């Protein structure tokens, strides 16, 4: 069992629109449960599973829909869905690269190594905070693919916002409270 689209009957190969991978078009037809011609957050959530067969969480699905929703309508068409599948595939490959023990989830040590290899200089305390916030409760907390995507998207977005203010690349910025809130609202919500 792997991460990604995995629910429902095997999608049929239909006629794919120009520029859309036929497999993505088939998945789109299978995922578009209400036959609206668009994929909603709810439909996307039902189509994506982690290695432990849990569905992707609402927050990650919403972040991804918003990323590929060019019309700001709350859903994506077949073109957005095709791009989203490529995006998930790239993150899945990265996830598997950092899941060194092939457990299907990222442990604390693997998360620390992932951050380091991605160029982030983050403390073990910060990684522990992320595990406490995003991992399933257990004696050995770890991060599934959906939360890994969410964490990395949010980390990248907030880092970009920080770099816009850190023009001297010194690693520190001075922000007003409203500037901080504006960064959060425009990048995370």
Automatic annotation (TrEMBL):
Molecular function in Gene Ontology: calcium ion binding; calcium-dependent protein binding
Keyword Endoplasmic reticulum belongs to the record: yes
Keyword NADP belongs to the record: no
GO cellular component, one term: ER to Golgi transport vesicle membrane
Alphabetical keyword list: Calcium, Cytoplasm, Cytoplasmic vesicle, Endoplasmic reticulum, Membrane, Metal-binding, Repeat
Residue ranges of every copy of the EF-hand domain listed in the record: 19-54, 86-121
Pfam families per record: EF-hand_6, EF-hand_7
Topology term for the membrane: Peripheral membrane protein
Ranges in coiled-coil conformation: none
InterPro entries assigned: EF-hand-dom_pair (IPR011992), EF_Hand_1_Ca_BS (IPR018247), EF_hand_dom (IPR002048), Peflin/Sorcin_CaBP (IPR051426)
Subcellular location: Cytoplasmic vesicle, COPII-coated vesicle membrane; Endoplasmic reticulum
PROSITE patterns xrefs: EF_HAND_1 (PS00018), EF_HAND_2 (PS50222)
Disordered as annotated region, ranges: 1-21
One of the protein's GO biological processes: COPII vesicle coating
Name of the molecule in the record: Peflin
Protein species of origin: Pygoscelis adeliae
Lineage: Eukaryota, Metazoa, Chordata, Craniata, Vertebrata
């Amino acid at each position: 069992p792997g991460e990604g689209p995995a629910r429902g009957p095997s999608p049929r190969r239909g006629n794919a629109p120009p520029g859309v991978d036929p497999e993505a078009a088939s998945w789109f037809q299978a995922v578009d449960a209400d036959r609206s011609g668009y994929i909603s957050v709810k439909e996307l959530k039902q189509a994506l599973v982690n290695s432990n067969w849990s569905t992707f969480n609402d927050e990650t699905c919403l972040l991804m829909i918003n990323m590929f929703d060019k019309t700001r309508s709350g859903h994506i068409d077949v073109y957005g869905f095709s791009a989203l599948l490529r995006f998930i595939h790239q993150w899945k490959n990265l996830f598997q690269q950092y899941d060194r023990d092939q457990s299907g989830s990222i442990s604390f040590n693997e998360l620390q190594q992932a951050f380091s290899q991605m160029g982030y200089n983050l403390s073990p305390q910060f990684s522990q905070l992320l595990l406490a916030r995003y991992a399933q409760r257990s004696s050995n907390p770890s991060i599934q693919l959906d939360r890994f995507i969410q964490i990395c998207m949010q980390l990248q977005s907030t880092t970009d916002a920080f770099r816009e203010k850190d023009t001297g690349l010194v690693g520190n910025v001075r922000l007003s409270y409203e500037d901080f809130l504006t960064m959060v609202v425009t990048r995370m919500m």
